[in-house]
Design brief:
The chain is mainly α. The chain has one domain. The chain is 73% helix and 0% strand. The protein contains 10 helices and no strands. It is globular.
């Protein structure tokens, strides 16, 4: 009996072992089940975030505090539309191909810069860089949805399409001219990165590239001046909103210079709470 208590039989030990090891085979299947749920939750969060962004952006022009900015943007757009064709046809046709290549390179460059910042953040575990890449992607999706909807609704004919060039509501809803997608995308990315890294070299580089993209869309003969102006305004507004949302409020305007006060004034009207 003493021997049996000290040295349990092999059958008894064998019977206990499976009970202690039973949960092990279930671990891989549990991990596999958690992955789809995690992906679905992340996708749902992303869709919700984009939806909230679009709601804020669409509502922003209708706030009372934004009326003066609305009037300024609409007035400038109206003046440009009235002079669109005369300005566009002053550009030599020999500039078109080179200008289109420059505008494409500018957009690709800004996209690569945002992607590079994001990858650098992942590699170096830099949370700010990673967040900048995520905000750039989020703002880009917001801008694409907005400008694509405006293109479809306004359906403006592109330049050099015959007697109806520049005409709105012309049925050209698949590739409308107003607003410019290149300008919208460029200013969206430039705005996010310039606000995330607010130093003058970065701002000059980002806004300089966005300005080059907008200008060359006109000199390339693919957009009217009003198209690129409206796209630039939309892109800057969306990028500014996404870069500053969920952040602390800006400091008191009395402690800032005039340029900073103007930026904060625009931000207050774009980012509605």
């Amino acid at each position: 009996m003493a021997q049996s208590e000290v040295n349990p039989s092999d059958s008894t030990a064998t019977g206990l072992a499976p009970a202690n090891q039973a949960p092990l085979p279930d671990a891989p299947s549990a991990a596999k089940e958690s992955q789809p749920r995690s992906f679905g939750k992340s996708l749902g969060t992303a869709v919700k975030t984009i939806g909230e962004d679009e709601l804020h952006i669409v509502k922003s022009p209708f706030s009372v505090s934004a009326l003066k900015w609305d009037a300024l943007a609409i007035g400038a757009t109206g003046v440009l539309i009235a002079n669109d064709e005369s300005v566009l046809h002053q550009v030599p046709a020999s500039w078109h191909n080179t200008s289109i290549n420059i505008s494409n390179a500018g957009v690709y460059g800004l996209g690569a810069a945002a992607g590079g910042i994001f990858i650098t953040g992942l590699v170096t575990h830099n949370e700010h860089a990673t967040d900048t890449g995520i905000r750039s992607a989020e703002a880009s999706v917001d801008s694409v949805i907005l400008y694509a909807a405006l293109k479809a609704v306004l359906a403006r004919q592109r330049p050099y399409t015959g007697a109806g060039e520049g005409k709105f509501f012309s049925g050209n809803w698949t590739s409308g001219s107003f607003p410019s997608g290149h300008a919208t995308f460029a200013w969206t990315l430039a705005s996010v990165m310039a606000h995330e890294y607010p130093n003058w070299p970065m701002r000059l580089l980002m806004y300089g590239a966005a300005t080059a993209v907008s200008t060359t869309r006109v000199t390339g003969g693919v957009h009217f001046p009003a198209d690129v102006f409206s796209g630039s305004v939309i892109g800057y507004g969306v990028g500014t909103y996404v870069a500053h949302k969920d952040r602390q409020k800006a400091p008191s305007p009395h402690s800032q210079n005039r340029i900073k006060r103007a930026q904060n004034a625009i931000l207050e009207h774009v980012a509605i709470q």
